[in-house]
Design brief:
266 residues, alpha/beta, Rossmann fold
Length: 266
Amino acid sequence: MARLDGKVAIVTGGARGLGGATVDVLAEEGATVLIADVIDEAGEARATALRAKGHKAEYHHLDVRDADAWAALVDTAMHAHGHLDVLVNNAGINISITIEDATAQQFRDVLEVNLIGAFLGTKAVIPAMRSSGGGSIINIASNSTQMVLPLTTIYGASKSALANLTKTTAVHCAQRGYNIRVNSVHPGAHETEMLTGGTGMRPLDIPQVKALIDAIPMGRMGQPRELGKVVAFLASDDSSYMTTSELFSDGGLTVVSFGGDPALRG
């Protein structure tokens, strides 16, 4: 018996990248996964591929910035499956820029997806999870909550706020006796299109990425499925006494210094 058998999970930004790998792992662990994204073709393709392998997956268009869309998705999940057990707030965008070059609109754009999107999703699922007897909310933050790099001015701020939102929500749910656990995962560099900017280049051929890899104690980037397995652990009953936790999945990068490498300073 897979450890997520019988659970129903929503994964935002689940069409590709870390979200897509997370969807795959959760489905393989037995969950019914609702892939929520705005990349319709990729999302439908992922759901179709998983169903062809005998897993339970479906795609739903969702703009995480839209509270009404969140309400509709949760309502759909409850009517179709009768319960909702897991939410993975993974949808995110990044603009690599310093404080001097960033605009207020860019800041707002990133916050709308990375922070407010997770806020709206969390508010939408709490009543459904309470009626289901409990659940697990997993927010995908970043190791930029601990690492200070000028180019992560906007992204790091959004993810640091998300990490704090995780804790306040976790304590609220625990003190109210909701049986809803809320934790955050903080990935470092993983081999996704988001890291390479969709250039199709090998990570080692991109100077800034190579410098980052060289700084990682484990000497490599993570594979997306490795992050998915961390999420699956938090979604499962194996982590039943964990809430407010921050799990870093970055090969040990957060504990080392970059030594002033200009390629990393940006």
